[in-house]
Hints:
Blueprint (H helix, E strand, L loop, with lengths): L1 H28 L26 E8 L1 H5 L2 H14 L3 H12 L8 E8 L7 E6 L3 H14 L18 E4 L15 E3 L7 E4 L17 E5 L2 E5 L5 H4 L11 H9 L5 E5 L1 H28 L8 H9 L41 H15 L8 E9 L2 E9 L33 E8 L2 H22 L13 H9 L3 H5 L3 E10 L13 H13 L8 E6 L2 H14 L9 E6 L2 E6 L3 E6 L2 E5 L2 H12 L8 H6 L9 E5 L1 H11 L7 H9 L7 E7 L4 E8 H43 L9 H6 L5 H5 L3 E8 L2 E8 L9 E5 L5 E3 L11 E2 L2
Antiparallel strand pairs: 1-2, 1-9, 2-3, 3-8, 4-6, 5-7, 7-8, 9-10, 10-11, 11-21, 12-13, 12-19, 13-14, 14-18, 15-16, 16-17, 17-18, 19-20, 20-21, 22-23, 23-24, 24-25, 25-26
Amino acid sequence: MMKSTQRLIRLLLVFLFIASPLLAQQRRSTAPKKPAASEVPEPAPTFDTLLAADSYKVYAEIRGVGGLIRSSAVNDLLDPVMKLGGPPKEFKTVVKWLNAHADVLTSSRMMVASWPSRPKLPNVLIAIEFSSPEEAKKFYPELRGFIPTLLTPPSSTPSPVSGPVAVRKSPSSTSATPANEPAIVYKTSPPSPTVTRDVTASPQKESPPALPPYQMKQSGALILISDTDFTFRDLKPRGSKPLEEDQNFMLARNRFAAESLFLYVEMKSIEKEQKETQKKWEEEEQKRIEAQAANPPKPEVSPGEVEAVAAEPKFEAQPPTPEPSPSSEPTQVGTAADQQISGNATLSAVPERASQEMMFSIYAALFGGESKWPEAISAALVFEGDAYVLRSLIVNGAENKGNAIPFVPQFVSGPALVPEAPNIFPADTELFVSVSLDYPQVYEGMLKAMANADELSRKYRGQPARVGPAPESPFAVYEKKLGLKIKDDVLPLLGNEIALALPKKTASPSPSPPSTETEKTTREGAYQNKPAADPIPVIAISVKDREAVGRLIPKIIESFGFKGANLFAQTEKREGTEIISYGDVFGYAFVGDFLIISPDPAATRQVVDAYLSHQTLSSDSHFRNFTRWQPRQVQGQVYVAPSLVEAYTSVLGSGGQVNDKMNEFMARVNPVIDPLTYALSNEGQGPLHELHVPKNLLQLIIAGMSNEARELPMQTNEAMAKTALRSVAGGEAAFKSDKGDGRYGTLDELLSESLISKELLENYGYKIELTISGNRFEAVAVPKEYGKTGKLSYFIDESNVLRAGDHGGGAATLADAAID
């Protein structure tokens, strides 16, 4: 027994020794398995990983929300709105609340996405990013409590229920909230409550509570607000490309990384959507046409009409009479002999019809044609110095890289250059525009636009497509008249720069010198009192060969239908510079490397004189100082002088009444208006537009608009108060002759007889009072809030004469002036 027991123990020990590695391996294999990828909770979305590239077409971003709220850039523009515009209560509440929470929002970013590209997406999505999830969680209840004060949900009246009622709501479900984040959701569409009633309860159901028109949720460091429910998987489906990886978006966002406000519009998606809509419409229209052709409507013919048709005599078809062929020679509209030449010659020839049609076709081709959509448009706004700077980057495709202005396909930018036109135009130029154009591409684009316009015209008229060679373009007709080719003979003579200027307004000179001393004195007085004439535009075109262009100009003038125009040409020289004028029609000259053309020869002389005296725009301090920010080489440039800016602001503010508040605000604004400047350049990413607007200019514009917006309701109230008093006077006359039996009635009596409107008396900011004394009555209208609902007070009595006066909120009397 002992031996057997020992062998059994030894066998057990050997078995345990051998099995120990297997047991250890088995213990390791029983460790927790790594969860599958589908089971791993996704991290909370961040500001940059929230959206897919194909979720929304419009994306806006505000950086440093809190700092922006308290910046002078925002408050200087809010000041005229708050003090002059009388904004609604909700707007004031928002501004006050944002200022109170500016510290919390100092480093926050806010994103607004709109125009969804896929279904199951909110129309508007707002995301606010905080520095940490704790900050977002702390701010969430404050924002949730504030928004209902602005967006009040519709009221809901519960149905009456008899008997005891116990209500039990089912728990709200979150929308794809990450597993590692707390579910904090404010639903717009909570589940319908489950209602348990006593057996004695009425069968009527309780109406659900009113739902707010928005949804809020907090996830990680984000607070999101939308108009409808959504899931994070809807915003960025599995496998979709994130917005942060979209090449065009990152190109624009990185370019405008330092700006406070950033806007991005996905034009390629918008174009695709429009093409799909157009294709769907065309297919439906084609189906309608085919269905109509297969089942044409049968005309309803009465028996009498059938008998009349049968009784009509039949006639043999006769061949049509051929029309006389038009003469190959154009009709002569006017010749040089028809013109009268005097000491001060004038040119009044009428252009030929062919020239008019050609100019119309050229204009339509220049601004028409098939639009080439950019892939994206981005913009940014920032406050720098004393100006608001608006920048816009156009992201074009490979086929339209030179197209700087979207939807104007023929505007093809030329190479970047240093503008030379400021060295030509006068220093007092109020508006200066200079661009660089690629003339060969513009010309080819216009030819293509003309051909496309012909095809579209035939298509819409139901004509078949043209077979054979296309008709001659207006350029070909014009080239035959000139005896040259525009592309080969004219365009190579031109440089890339073309500029336009509006010199400062000057008084119109006398048409002819005075003959006597008396006439001289009379004209000098009239000259002093005569208002300044409208500015005349002057165009400068850079040329490469002055002599060749000079030989072409007379031919071009005559080819436009001005027959015998050369008989009216007058030449005058200014220090070697020739000025050629054609009566009062136009004049031109060569100044430097530019051809100067103006419809007023006096404007051409002004440019030449300024150039010869070195009083040019490039020497003006305003122009030099306020275009210094522009790149040295640009593709376009605009300069608006302070005088023209001030004239615009004065016209803008002339629409409303100037009150004390407006005068007070104007006294605090810097009266010196800076120039408005613009530049078009290309940094290799695409056409970049940059506009600098002076701060005080924008303040004045907003102040004028706010003042007019405030004055308009007062003017409406005053007009309605006058109508109300006239209505009272008419009602009193009717009441006295009928129900009153010779006496006037009270307001209540007039209302009960429907002789006046209660809405007219109560809803337009005026208090109407009526006093009756014997055979007389007096009615007055006084503003309920002087200076806000109205200023003038009104008075009327049995004489039916309406009177008005400004009594600071007091009542008008019989002593006030009568008004219409």
